[in-house]
Amino acid sequence: MKAAVLHRYDETLTAKEFVSFEDVVDPRLENPTDVIVRIGGAGVCRTDLHIVEGIWREKSSVNLPYIMGHENAGWVEELGKGVTGFKKGDPVICHPLVTSGHCLACRRGDDMHAEESVFPGINANGGYAQILLTGARSLIKLPKTLAPKDVAPYTDAGLTAYRAAKKASRHLLPGQYAVIIGAGGLGHIGIQVLKALCAAEIIVLDRAPGALELARGCGAHHVVKADGNEVEAVLSLTGGRGAEAVIDFVGEGDAIAKGLAMTRNAGFYYIVGYGGRIDIPTIDMITSEKTIVGNLVGTYAELVELMALADRGLVDLKTREYPLSAANDALHDLHHGRVPGRAVLVP
């Protein structure tokens, strides 16, 4: 099969080619619950750039060369002997984690903390290829309204945004405020999920005028250009007290300090983006009683819920398609901020 293969890290992200488009050996069924999926679309994620940088080399056991791509959807191609409920040709979206189902975390539905798991595209070969090896427990059948290439990024970007927005929606009431920092690939989904799940007023921050325009189209009630005065702007919109919930899809640079400053006392700051550090004096944590919440992708059940919203037209994923052979173009466009929404590789 053809695949876009990572052979070496590039800490500065300055190489002309991050991956090599080449022929590789097809994956094969190894266990009774394995499934081969023919890729219809593979999302290109900022995490892939972090992988290229080498940030994940100590977090995963993968050895180069290997195939990135952890946002995958397609059609069932081949089934292990123990797989039931699916047949060849079924359109599916793949939860990003392949779990055994045996550990306590699995049985509680806490997929992201399973003790026995494989994460294609992170610590095993992923979907920047024509076919993918995954597991039956990861598959969700797609309704006829959704095509694989249109939904692939939901498996990480969408699922991560959904999980954070769902957490926030549980305590947001009408008349309260939610701030979303970053209206890109994750943020534009988070806006729509919040709008679908709660009645809070949504304020969106971004540096790019195009992203703010996208945010308005996704349902933001207020947009604020991140030009250095965004904290003051948010405080003005919220009567000087800040927002009950802040979801930070950036997680680096000055976004963290500003996000915490926008969170009102007893409010919740949800950190999704990464690369920076949270530094807050303990006395401030005590006196403000703010809650800081980490978010790691999401569960199988949450991906099912997100597909239900997409099927009903309540969430729409903005994508730009690239042929698999143009994976480097997609990665460079993402790195330089030229992708509105999400990039998707189509074999």
UniProtKB/TrEMBL annotation:
Cofactor(s) in the UniProt record: Zn(2+)
Pfam families: ADH_N, ADH_zinc_N
Keyword list, A-Z: Metal-binding, Oxidoreductase, Zinc
One Gene Ontology MF term: zinc ion binding
CDD domains: arabinose_DH_like (cd05284)
Annotated SMART domains: PKS_ER
Enzyme class: oxidoreductase
EC number(s) on file: 1.1.1.1
InterPro entries, A to Z: ADH-like_C, ADH-like_N, ADH_Zn_CS, ER, GroES-like_sf, NAD(P)-bd_dom_sf
Residue ranges of domain Enoyl reductase (ER) in the record: 14-345
PANTHER family: ALCOHOL DEHYDROGENASE 1-RELATED, VACUOLAR PROTEIN SORTING-ASSOCIATED PROTEIN 11
Family (UniProt): Belongs to the zinc-containing alcohol dehydrogenase family.
The name this protein goes by in its record: alcohol dehydrogenase
Organism of origin: Bradyrhizobium rifense
